[in-house]
Amino acid sequence: MFKIGLDLGYGYIKGVNESGREVLFPSLVCDAYPRMLTGLFGGGYGNIKDNLHLVVSDGSSYEIFVGELAQREGRNVSFVFDEDKMAHPTTRELLAAACFLLFPDGHVPVHLVTGLPLDQYSHKKDEFKQMLSKFNVTVRHKDSQESKRISFAKTTVFPQAAGSVYHAVWEERNKYLVKGSYLGLIDIGFKTTDFITFVVEDKLVLREDLSGTIDTGMSVVQTVADKLFTAKSGSKIDIPELMRLVDNGRLVFKGKELNFSKEIEDVKYDLAKSIKNRLKGAWGNEIRSITNVFLAGGGAVTLEHMLTDIHPSTITIKSPQFANAKGFLRVAEIEGRKAATG
Question: Is the pTM of this model over 0.90?
Fold first, then answer.
């Protein structure tokens, strides 16, 4: 069974399959429109991931721009922050787009492992798994005409930060999986920050009382940058320009460069401080029992230098933005081996 690990983040979609293919694109979807001049200036269709003009068929057919293309050429595009994201049509469209890129050629059964934030996992996982089990759409790339049928032979829904832990420790199990030790992980996402704690016994045992979700993430930086731009320019800014402003700290508007580098850095500092304070409140004196704290998620690299003082042994894991997706793939591999050995 072909295995895929997929992290359907509020800000970015991250996925990896058993062949080693990785995909990363913004969680943006909008209605498509004809692009008559595409390719005239070298845009072309060579990189399908950056030109996801898709035709989705699930009884009726409709066209959408997804990811980089929606960011670059979309109209009235925005991120979706609904808590019940699995019921939102955009989630299904992002799922279809990611699987179009990650599915193998031909009719091969697929095992998908994906996840939910910790605060949604216990009461939403069954509903999410049911949606995935019934998922059955055809996705065609408008320009290349490549088409794939997306459905799943098996699905597993896993807590998001727990996926990151599997990725963090698996290749150095002898180093980290010491019986009696505690492992903590902070997964800094776009909308939320998950934190999770395990005690190492004969297996990893979740400490639910030391795990949870903080309702803040890197989107705070976008929100403040949006307000700063409007206050300075008197105009609103669209999502693509806002994303560039957050990345670069500056933007040219009406021929003048507006520089918000210091203000944006201050917001990141305040966000990191807020996360640390909330974590110290949640972990309390138990933080002294934790052997290692891992940083994961899209915000890990950005806030790393502001979070290292949360614990004497704070480690940013490899490929932090892909931590959940790669951990989910590891879960699929473990389940596959268990099934093979009976």
Answer: yes
